[in-house]
Design goal:
The complex is a heterodimer of chains A (232) and B (257).
Chain A lengths: L3 H8 L2 H34 L3 H16 L2 H12 L9 E2 L3 E2 H28 L3 H9 L4 H31 L11 H12 L3 H34 L1
Antiparallel strand pairs in A: 1-2
Helix pairs in contact in A: 2-3, 2-5, 2-7, 2-8, 3-5, 4-5, 5-7, 6-7, 7-9, 8-9
Chain B lengths: L4 E12 L4 E12 L3 E5 L6 H8 L7 E6 L2 E2 L4 E3 L5 E3 L2 H6 L1 E4 L11 H11 L5 H14 L15 H13 L5 E5 L7 H16 L3 E5 L3 H7 L2 E6 L2 E6 L1 H6 L4 H10 L1
Parallel strand pairs in B: 3-10, 3-11, 8-9, 9-10
Antiparallel strand pairs in B: 1-2, 1-4, 4-5, 6-7, 11-12
Helix pairs in contact in B: 3-4, 3-5, 5-6
Classes of the chains: A mainly alpha (232), B alpha/beta (257).
The complex binds adenosine-5'-triphosphate and magnesium ion.
Adenosine-5'-triphosphate binds next to strand 2 and helix 1 of chain B.
Chain lengths: 232, 257
């Protein structure tokens, strides 16, 4: 059960939680970045005229949404990257690169499947008249996408992307299973050292909450400000 | 006033719903330089489809559209030397300005940015040149003080005038108008028609789909009446309005005039 002594014992390892926090933030940031780029490619593939590109991207999205993230993570770490020697150095002096990267890859691949659907719906929500006006001015399909459709689509889907970011922060906790030293791995280390886990779990929950709650509040704030801009 | 053939439409057909709906049913028409061709007809008669086919926003099912001696419905053509050249639809569209019923201004860009985007990206015009050109066009339509406004801040009539000058930025050889005043409050129709009339006076080749019969009569030099995807009658405005031949046209005019 929880006890004051338990918390005191656990808090001696506070730096591990701090490092875990930094690691979780880094994992999430890299994941949205790579996930978004990949998602953009998949979304454009899915909307292209080519049956092959459409097929490949549809299969990708369905497979990644229909299988557990844990399985995807293990396949990336134990199968895809099993025979690849990643450089072993520590980012910020404590994040092990060779564990961090497989985590980022798996999370990015996974969230790209979800983000691509968000991006696709955002693009499809833009009135066809915008594309027609742009094309009638002589702009190419790609120029139209780049200067007319995407800027409007991204503005519309920013809240959904931000929500996906919060989801990624929470789901990144799974990466402790391949030895990424994020917040959950701090819990595990404390358990090994003190033979107590309850207090460490409570602290981990608090740290996650302090990370995600303000994030979603900030998002909500910008969402409100942006919709105000629309009304002018 | 009118001169050489600019656009030649030959046996154009556009079918929807697996061929059960004939939006365009064997339409042939020539548009000459300097023409102001007004297209009238009941709803669903294929006016928009014809206009949108001209710059291939709709891809025809059959038939051809010749522009500068090139059939733009084909992917390739042979030039004078016999070499096979790819048809680049973007370069043809550049020469055909289009104005839509619902303006279709880019809401995330200011009026000025709406106007200079395509000239900069397509014609590779410098920002300074494009801005200068845009300002002089804005002055022409009396909106130079709205350059930094966003479309949402403008009235419908202002938006449509901007849409017209945005198309003019590309120096088109022909302007296509699809019911440019149908979405406007009545008191704003005049200001848009005025701009169009001025364009016509300057000799711009125009194809105008409209329900404004006054405009058709006053500004048009040819009026085309469409019904069921066909051109049923074509004549000078005085003749077509005062002595309509086809019963469908007589019926249509009795309803709208
Ligand atoms: N994308 C489409 N899919 C199916 N049918 C279509 C499509 N676009 C147009 N049509 C049909 O083609 C016919 C001609 O349409 P079009 O829009 O050219 O008529 P219009 O003369 O412009 O009518 P309006 O005055 O109402 O604008 C109509 O019956 C319309 O329903
Ligand atoms: Mg129409």
């Amino acid at each position: 059960m929880l006890s004051i002594e338990g918390f005191q014992k656990t808090l001696k390892y506070w730096t591990m939680f701090e490092e875990g926090l930094v690691c979780t933030v880094m994992l999430s940031l890299f994941t949205v970045l790579f996930g978004f780029i990949l998602a953009m490619i998949i979304a454009l593939m899915r909307m292209s005229k080519s049956h092959i590109l459409k097929g490949v991207s549809s299969v990708y999205v369905e497979v990644f949404r229909a299988t557990p993230l844990m399985v995807q993570l293990f396949i990336v770490y134990h199968v895809l990257l099993a025979d690849i020697d990643l450089p072993t150095f520590k980012m910020f002096g404590f994040i092990r690169f060779e564990r961090f990267i497989p985590g980022v890859i798996a999370l990015s691949l996974n969230s790209a499947a979800y983000l691509s659907e968000i991006i696709r719906s955002g693009i499809q929500s833009i009135d066809l008249g915008q594309t027609e006006a742009s094309r009638s001015l002589g702009m190419s399909q790609w120029q139209t996408m780049q200067h007319v459709v995407l800027p409007q689509a991204i503005k519309n889907i920013l809240p959904a992307i931000a929500n996906e970011f919060v989801t990624i922060i929470k789901e990144s906790s799974i990466c402790w299973t391949i030895g990424v030293q994020e917040i959950m791995s701090a819990v595990n280390s404390v358990k090994a050292a003190t033979f107590t886990i309850a207090e460490a779990l409570i602290i981990a929950a608090c740290v996650y909450f302090c990370l995600t709650f303000p994030t979603s509040k900030i998002i909500a704030y910008f969402e409100r400000r942006m919709s105000r801009g629309d009304r002018r | 006033m009118t001169g050489d053939k600019l656009i030649e439409v030959k046996n154009l057909k556009k079918y929807y719903n697996k061929g059960s709906l004939h939006a365009l049913d064997d339409v042939s028409v020539n548009i000459n330089k300097g023409d102001v061709m007004v297209v009238i007809g009941p709803s669903g008669s294929g006016k928009s489809t014809l206009l949108r086919s001209l710059n291939l926003l709709e891809v025809p099912t059959e038939g051809s559209i010749w522009f500068h001696g090139v059939d733009i419905t084909k992917k390739k053509y042979k030039d004078e030397t016999g070499a096979v050249v790819k048809v680049n639809i973007d370069t043809h569209r550049e020469k055909m300005g289009m104005v839509f019923q619902h303006f279709n201004l880019f809401p995330h860009k200011t009026i000025l940015d709406n106007m200079i985007l395509a000239p900069m990206k397509v014609k590779k015009m410098s920002k300074q040149d494009a801005t200068e050109k845009a300002m002089s066009l804005l002055k022409r339509v009396g909106l130079e003080d709205r350059a930094d406004a966003y479309p949402i801040q403008l009235s419908g009539g202002q938006k449509q005038r901007i849409a017209i000058v945005r198309a003019l930025m590309m120096d088109p050889e022909v302007m296509l108008f699809d019911e440019p005043t149908s979405a406007l409050d009545p008191e704003m129709v005049g200001e848009v028609l005025e701009v169009m009339k001025e364009l016509a006076t300057e000799g711009m080749t125009m194809v105008v789909v409209t329900h404004e019969m006054g405009f058709a009569r006053e500004v048009g030099n040819r009026v085309v009446f469409m019904a069921d995807g066909k051109i049923l009658e074509e004549a000078a405005p005085e003749k077509l309005f005062d002595h309509p031949c086809h019963p469908r046209l007589q019926d249509f005019l009795s309803k709208v005039l």
